[in-house]
Give the backbone structure.
Amino acid sequence: MKITAVHVDTLELTMEEPFVIASSAMAYGPCDLVRVETDEGITGIGEACPAYEFTGETLWSAADVIGEYLGPAVLGRDPFDLEAIHHVWDRELYTVGNQAAKAAVEMALWDIQGKALGKPLCELIGGRARPALQEVVAFGWDEPEALAADTRAMKALGIHIFKIKVGDTPERDEQRVAAVRETAGPDARITVDANQGWWDAKTAVRGIKLLEKHGIEFAEQPVRMDDLEAARFVRAHVDVPIALDESVRGPREALACAKAEACDMFVVKLMKTGGILNALKVNAIAEAAGITVMVGNMGESSVAMSAHFHVNIALANAVHGDADLPWRPGALEFDIGRGIEQQVVEGISWIDVPKGPGLGIELIEENVERQRVERRW
Ligand SMILES: [Mg+2]
């Protein structure tokens, strides 16, 4: 099979409410939608969600890199030859970084592989390590009363795992976490993510110690992404496990974090690793170092979210996952794909990957059209 064409559409996915965290405020989701065609009539789809503060990319930079470099480099190649394709991208074209752009094209190639073999993506990367994923919701910075109301609404939908964005002043963080804990009850699972917001190690230790009283499971990215010494200090001075997200971009950074003994958990996201192949390599480093992984996401549509769920369900070393649904209140107004499955069993909301081959996602073309944007400058 040969790749014959690579197309990229630029979309801005409308969000019902802006999502505010320590490092950014998102009013819409940037989305580079990639379609890869082959000479056997199979088309694969993939999605980039370029988050500037994570990988330095934007909607337009990712589209340019896909259109000018990554796309042309795969024409005429077999979509199964992923190692060779990454080698060309990274070492012959020197397309350093551009991880979300690479993830989008590579995702479409996995989708083609699954469609060619008639197998869902998770079966190509290890099979099922767990039957389903428990749904999680992430709360951005908001007033404690608003967070309590949101917690009540999400509980009613069967959600009992809450990820709370912190990294504000430790006192305001504590008010937010306390509001969610009080409303969610003692059995709910709560995790926190500072997105580098506490910045230095001592503030982070103070913040985490305040939050530990409210039963948090782990704390994510307490300090600056490039300060592994600070992360190591924090890890040594608090009781809860430390997860690193922004610090762990690909295998090289994962190895550095493991060597520095800077964390207990890696957050794996396809937009940081440059795709699934590198995500599996990051997981291999984690396993070898006795580090667990959680599979995160960037709040993408069902296209990339399906890829994250397939990876999450396939990795036995993944102990936690940000299994958020794109269509929950406050998230995307017009999702661009369908296929992800969700059901409530005995009061708990469970997510499953689509049944179909590859990503298993069918595009909702009218929602693609309505959110397409042209360059503004
Ligand atoms: Mg994070």
